[in-house]
Amino acid sequence: MRISGMMRLMGLLTAGLTLALVVKRRMRRIELEGKVVIVTGGGRGLGYAIAQQFAARGCKLAICGRDAATIAAAVRMLRGQGAEIIGSSCDVSDAQAVQTFVRRVVDYYGTVDVLVNNAGQCFVGAATQHQANDFADALQNIFWTQYHPTMAVLPHMREQRSGRIANVTSIGGKVPIPHQSAYSVAKYAATGWSETITTEFTNDGIRVSTITPPPIKNGAALYVHFLGRLEDEFKWFTKTLTSPLTSITADRTARVVVDAVTYGDPERAVSPFSWLAIRAHGLLPNLTLPLLAMGERLLMPKVDAPSQTSPHRMGADVARQSKNSEIRELAQRARADADTYEPRSQLLK
What we know:
Elements: H1 2-27, E1 36-40, H2 45-56, E2 60-65, H3 68-80, E3 84-89, H4 95-109, E4 114-117, E5 123-124, H5 132-160, E6 163-168, H6 181-201, E7 206-211, E8 216-217, E9 225-226, H7 230-242, E10 248-249, H8 250-263, E11 267-268, H9 272-283, H10 285-299, E12 313-314, H11 315-321, H12 325-340, H13 343-347
Parallel strand pairs: 1-2, 1-4, 2-3, 4-6, 5-9, 6-7, 7-11, 8-10
Antiparallel strand pairs: 9-12
Helix pairs in contact: 2-8, 4-5, 5-6, 7-12, 9-10
């Protein structure tokens, strides 16, 4: 009887806690219609998919990215779909450029309600192939691209005592991915920053969400910086990003971002795979790290001597210069995925 009673008590406590969490989450909910949303890296890929999802909910958009033509095409496409939107070319790793962009948004709309830090780059290659400046570049283009926009919108959100920030990091910011050391280091930094400000900004009425998706099927392999054995690295990485078994769509990720912003969720892992991988590594690192090491030995390209490092090459360049039929086929699959979230390509159709 004692055991039975304890079980019933534990069941009641669990049910009560679950109900309390559900109620608390609903209390954090905001209406998105009419909200001013900044999306960095919003001209293509995941950023464009995120902008589309916010536009569908009646938000006022401001997007930015490094390439002016890409941003202009995205603005044109989204306006054609009925969105109220402005856009500018802006390198969000540049603090002054970000301040200028945010001032323009505030001058135009009068406020900033939501910031989605999506812009970033990806680096693929064995750890010993990287030089110190590669890690500096990764931090510049992954961590600082989230830090500078956050600090630029913070005074406005603090003044209005409300705001939502979503930081798109990665499963690679929670679990170390072989042959992505520079990327993981920078994503770990971004994730740590995001989780820390989640605890600190709440008192200002600002909810921060950390989004940790698995690989995304959006053609990113064409824009990744590869080094080392370029073609071999391109193969495994592009297979990962184009297979439905190991990747998810940008649309699905974008919907999770919007939902996390709506409810002020502290963290969202996007897929069951990323959720399980993150929890498994957090609980059992002495198990997951040897498994990752085994995967590196069996599945990853052979590593050259550190002295045989090569310069970075963009994935599109690797594919264009390759005579390997498998690489060309993978590149075609990646291009098809990229075109789905590439306004410039869609405007040419």
